[in-house]
Amino acid sequence: MTATVIDGKQIAEQTRAEAAAGALALSTRTGVIPHLAAVLVGEDPASAVYVRNKQIACEKAGFKSTLHRLPANTGQAELLTLVQALNADADVHGILVQLPLPKGIDTTLILDAILPAKDVDGFHPENVGLMQQGRPRFLPCTPAGVMRMLKVSGIETAGKHAVVIGRSDIVGKPMAALLGQKGADATVTLCHSRTQDIRAFCREADILVAALGIPQFVKGDWIKPGAVVIDVGINRIGDKLVGDVDYLPAAQVASAITPVPGGVGPMTIAMLLANTLQAAINLSGSDAR
Ligand code: NAD
């Protein structure tokens, strides 16, 4: 079997176009332009690239985007004051604090300070709770992007066994929750660093989501013939990006697979736009679509 490649770039483009159309409709109706405020602390080059890409995507979709860049030695109190000012700024609809934050800053404290109505990353405990209860305000962007890819690609999740590797708050845990929720209806196994014999779980997976951050960890012969393989991992090897799945052998066995790059990555930014548009609609009190 040679897998169908799930084209994240194309699905993301479509998602971004929908967000752009939504933004235009909102501004025509109400004069409100969705506005994402990004906060970048320190000089981490990868973080700077991620934030820049998010800003470019905002601008292309007709959103307003502002960047608040702070030096690496910024104190926690100063960062908290900025977050509170953005919470209070009626012109700002979405707040994104780029992670990781420098050592010495309590990430949980900062993320918890973001107004839940502007938490377009979906990390605030209130939004996590709403998601868990199946009445989401904002879904975390990466798992939401995966769910959208599955849907657009016509991949049935109901009754399937989904195995998620990785249990981070940003990817693995919400991914497992979304796959198991009513409507998606998969039976979910969540594997992590203490799981014994991950290979055996992978072999049982109809849908396998790898989100652990170890290059080419999942081997081709771990994959059940015909399975759908979603590779969330982004790992740099020299000047090459590779996923958490050993792509070529896996693609010989799977029925569908996401490439790296060009798979899940572009979806994350597209879902951030969708969330920011939703925040602007909610905050402007405009419920027409
Ligand atoms: P993380 O480091 O926060 O979490 C990794 C998880 O993997 C942990 O829960 C850990 O238990 C598990 N794990 C680690 N080693 C393991 C092992 N040997 N066997 C099984 N499980 C193991 O990482 P994260 O933020 O969830 O990111 C995971 C990967 O996804 C990284 O490569 C990251 O770059 C990538 N990522 C991609 C996107 C995207 O847009 N495509 C977004 C976020 C993260």
Summarize the structure.
With 289 residues, this protein is α/β, with parallel strands linked by helices. The chain has helices spanning 8-30, 45-60, 76-88, 107-113, 125-132, 141-152, 172-180, 198-203, 247-253, 264-284; strands spanning 4-5, 35-41, 64-70, 94-97, 161-165, 187-191, 207-210, 228-231, 235-237, 240-242, 256-257.
End-to-end Cα distance: 42 Å
Residue stretches low in confidence (pLDDT < 50, at least 5 long) are: none
Helix percent band? 40-55%
The CATH architecture designation of the largest domain is 3-Layer(aba) Sandwich
Task: Please tell me the total number of domains.
Answer: 2
Ligand species: nicotinamide-adenine-dinucleotide
User: Could you spell the SSE succession in H and E letters?
Assistant: EHEHEHEHHHEHEHEEEEHEH
What's the number of extended β-strand segments? 11
Percent of residues in beta strands: 15-25%
Major pleated sheet: 6 strands, parallel
Describe what you observe in this structure:
The protein has two domains: 31-116, Rossmann fold (3-Layer(aba) Sandwich), CATH 3.40.50.10860; 141-265, NAD(P)-binding Rossmann-like Domain (Rossmann fold, 3-Layer(aba) Sandwich). 42% of the residues lie in helices and 16% in strands. It has ten helices and eleven strands. The strands form three sheets. The protein has a six-stranded parallel β-sheet, sandwiched between helices. It has a three-stranded parallel β-sheet with strand order 3-2-4, sandwiched between helices. Helix 2 (45-60) links the parallel strand 2 and strand 3. The longest helix has 23 residues, at 8-30. The protein starts with a strand and ends in a 5-residue tail after the last helix. Bound molecules: nicotinamide-adenine-dinucleotide (NAD).
